[in-house]
Each structure stands twice: as C-alpha cells, then as structure tokens.
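Lecture 7 notes: from sequence to structure.

We start with a single chain of 211 residues. Read the sequence below before looking at the structure.
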Amino acid sequence: MPRQVDYASRRRRIAEAVCLLADERGPEGVSMRDVAARAQVSLGAVQRCFRTKEEMLLFAVGHVGERVTERVRARLAASPAQSAATTLEHAADEVALVREEHRAEARIWLAFVARASVSAPLAASLRSSYAPLQELFVRLVTEAAESTPDAGDTAPPDAVREARTLLALTDGLTSHVLVGHLTPKEAEDVLHAHLSGLWERLGVTAPGQRG
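Now the structure, written as tokens:
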C-alpha cells in the first residue's frame, strides 16, 4: 500500500526552511534547491508542493502571519476574563515583534515587506495577513469603549481608524527596534503611551489603574 504523505505538514516544514533562508539571505537569495536541503526533503518534494519560487514565498509569508496571529490568540485565550483594554495591549505587544525572542521573526517579516514593494502577489498576501489583526483591534477598541459607564453619552470611536493607527505603529516599532533606533523597552514605552492616550480619549480606565 502506498505511503500516505501529509502534504500540509510538509508545506509547513518547507515554509520554516524558507523563513530560515530568508533570514540569512533575504527572499531573493532563496532557491527551491536550497530550501529542499534545509528542509531535508527532495527537490521533487518541494516542487510537488509549490510550482514556483514565488508560490513558495507566498505560502511562507502567510505562514509567518499565521504564526503571529495564533500567538496572539493563544495569549488572549490564556486570560479569557481580562478586559478589552488589557486584551488589546497584549495583542499589540505580540504584533509589534520587539522582544528579543521574536527578533528573527521580525527580520523575516520585514524582508518580505521589502520584497512586496516589487511583487504584487506578495503584497496581496501581506494584506491578507494584516486583515485578521486589524479586525481584532477594531473589535477590542469597540468593546473597550462600550464598557465605560458613560458610553451612551459619548460619541463612539472611529474604531477602524484607531485600529489602523495601532497596526501601523506596531509595524513601525518592529523596524525601529530592528535597526537599533529604539530598544525593546523604549518601543514598549511608545506603544503603551499611545494606548494610554487612546484610553484617555475614550474615557476607559487604563489597565493597571483599576482599584
């Protein structure tokens, strides 16, 4: 009986190899042959999963995006009773990729962003990765605003604008830490200052200030 191949698992294994090579050489320096060697599979196995290098890179960038999104979801699931404001702070902290343990992931992500400037398919894949994070931020900003005692007396926030601003800020902090303009601690201070301003505008008690 022919041996069954778990293609989903193999594709993830190949994606991890792509990420490791992209971190070392940039996406331009990644070849299907080198990916096969790093993933410890045959070149034919890579070609059966991906017809072209571009297709392989598209899957890899989606894989990185899913990894970040899943980490956000796992952190939120660990404390289901926390407020929307606290949840948003934790989510933004994960997305910013400023901690040392996420440095390689940050390098990979920004390498793909740079390539996306000249690759429409890759840019579309990145937009798809941002979409669920923006939706999460929109939901949490809305929930935080609705949780205030005087929510009915104040104008609702432009949650989409606030979410876009926060997502753009986290992306910028990733870059600033990676090039050494900010330390991880300084980046976290900038993020928390922005969120404190948001809570003040919305009349939300900032996390850590509850009696």
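The radius of gyration is 20 Å. Keep this in mind for problem set 3.
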